[in-house]
Write a structure and sequence with these properties.
By secondary structure, this protein is an alpha/beta fold. The chain has four domains: about 60 residues, Orthogonal Bundle (Arc Repressor Mutant, subunit A); about 40 residues, no CATH class; about 100 residues, Rossmann fold (3-Layer(aba) Sandwich), CATH 3.40.50; about 90 residues, 3-Layer(aba) Sandwich (Rossmann fold). It has 14 helices and ten strands. The protein has a four-stranded parallel sheet with strand order 4-3-5-6, with helices on both faces. It has a four-stranded parallel sheet with strand order 8-7-9-10, sandwiched between helices. Helix 1 packs across helix 3, helix 1 crosses helix 10 and helix 2 packs across helix 3.
Length: about 325
């Protein structure tokens, strides 16, 4: 597990460690259920105080990225199960699901009714991006609209879902990995797909290709992206490159930095505003790579049952 820390960039080591571990979880490099190095082992590897590692792990646990198991270690929080590895065939998977339902106390009538409802189901009619940050969900939704064959892509917060679980009826929910548990708790029958955040290889190469002393500017719609972008670029180049990250809404700030920037990155909701000012070297960055979009297209072929609440809402329309 590669982690690069800079002690001269102005960002606390603890914050750098937390953000880099978050990025590895979001990108899938640290898989659900995977055990992280012990506090002392990681502290020795990075040459930092064990208290710094312990505090970083506690921050990750507080934000829902990992579980701290006393006596066992620190583990990446697992999302909702998507496969039945014990089953050797489709019939075996169905049989296991039915047996699990019986063991949970559901009657034969209830199970038959649920199976019939699934058989009447159709592919998702909507995609709902769920994130506590409205700006982050808007950015993901904007990219999705350009890549998947669904007419309606909506945004919602966890609070929205708590008020109305019917939001996901007949819909496919998309979220970052550490929100899966909260969504399935609020809406157990929801179809949920995880979105991983990854830096495209071309963008990495552009950063690595900058001469020492260059200035890199990141302009983004989402406050969530600002710390990730800053720490990621510093982890790739350390103090060799000066990194500045600004919200697109802070127009005066990033416009003032444009003339000095050797490379400017802008996300899909910031690209038009930045391009109008003709930066010297400019790249549009995507949160979702091509492989992720392809996987989501495939996910949209899966049938989704409509709950009673969703059917009532559809009837009202």
């Amino acid at each position: 597990m590669e982690i690069v820390l800079s002690r001269r960039g102005g960002v606390p080591v603890r914050d750098q460690l937390v953000t880099q571990l978050e990025l590895k979880i979001l990108s899938g490099n640290l898989a659900p259920g995977q055990r992280l190095p012990s506090v002392r082992a990681l502290a020795r590897r990075l040459d930092i105080h064990p208290n710094t590692v312990s505090a970083a792990y506690q921050d990750l646990a507080t934000s829902g990225h990992v579980r701290l198991r006393k006596g066992s270690g620190v583990f990446v929080r697992a999302g909702a199960p998507t496969t039945l590895p014990e089953a050797g065939s489709l019939d075996g998977m169905i049989r296991m699901a039915l047996h699990a339902a019986f063991r949970r106390g559901y009657s034969g009538v209830q199970i038959r009714s649920a199976v019939e409802r699934w058989l009447r189901a159709v592919p998702p009619e909507r995609v709902v991006v769920i994130d506590p940050s409205r700006e982050m969900s808007e950015l993901l939704a904007h990219e999705l609209k350009r890549g998947i064959p669904v007419e309606h892509v909506a945004c919602a917060s966890l609070e929205d879902l708590a008020r109305d679980p019917g939001l996901l009826s007949g819909a496919l929910a998309l979220c970052l990995p550490y929100h899966v548990e909260a969504i399935t708790r609020l809406c157990p029958d929801a179809a949920v797909e995880v979105v991983n955040l990854e830096v495209q290889q071309e963008d990495r190469e552009a950063i690595l290709g900058l001469p020492t002393g260059s200035v890199a500017l990141v302009v983004t719609h989402s406050p969530t992206v600002v710390p990730f972008a800053s720490v990621l670029l510093r982890s790739l180049r350390g103090d060799e490159v000066l990194v500045e990250a600004r919200l697109v809404s802070a127009v005066r700030e990033w416009r003032r930095l444009l003339p000095a920037a050797d490379l400017v990155f802008a996300d899909a909701l910031s690209v038009d505003a930045v391009r109008r000012h003709k930066p010297r070297r400019f790249r549009e960055v995507r949160i979702l790579n091509d492989q992720m979009v392809t996987r989501l297209r495939e996910a949209l072929t899966v049938v989704v049952p409509m709950t009673a609440a969703g059917a009532a809402r559809a009837g009202a329309r």
